[in-house]
User: Fold this.
Amino acid sequence: MPPISTPPETRAIHIKERSPIAWMASFPDLQFDPSRIPKEAGAEVPEGYTIRPLNVNDYDKGYLELLSQLTTIGTISKRKFAERFDLLRERNESKFCIVIEDLGRGVIVGAGSVIIELKFVHECGMVGHIEDIVVDNSARGKNFGKLIINALTLVAKQSGAYKVILSCAEKNVGFYEKCGLKAKEVTMANYL
Assistant:
């Protein structure tokens, strides 16, 4: 039996609508096309702040320091950061990193990402995995966590995902329920 061949136009339906090259030329420092963040996601961001894709220059705006409030970061040079950023940018249909910047201070105060997983189940559906949600201690109480979750959910939906999921510490379940997520199943891990 000959191998099953899917025509390229069928495999890349979700990519047809956008030209990756066009937006990359317009936004050379951004990880992905900012139009992927629906306008409604930024509607509730307070004045003096902006929600946007990760920028290669966010290394100098405290992005890694912010992530260190969430987990261990290790030593990452500016060059290593730029190399990882370029790799994410090249794969801009699979991972979307969003930040909230305090424009007055030029500092990143919130961040999160969504990874789009291609599935065979649900008619070759897609799932958004929300990761690395963090809001700076100095910026808590401004609803930034909820804004980030909402923006990532909208990006996942726009990408064609049929659901978003995340793993969290038990102490954070209440927060994520306020963001519209429901506790379901159990997360298992094997740290390598």
User: Anything to note?
Assistant: The first strand starts at residue 49 and ends at 53. The chain has nine helices and five strands.
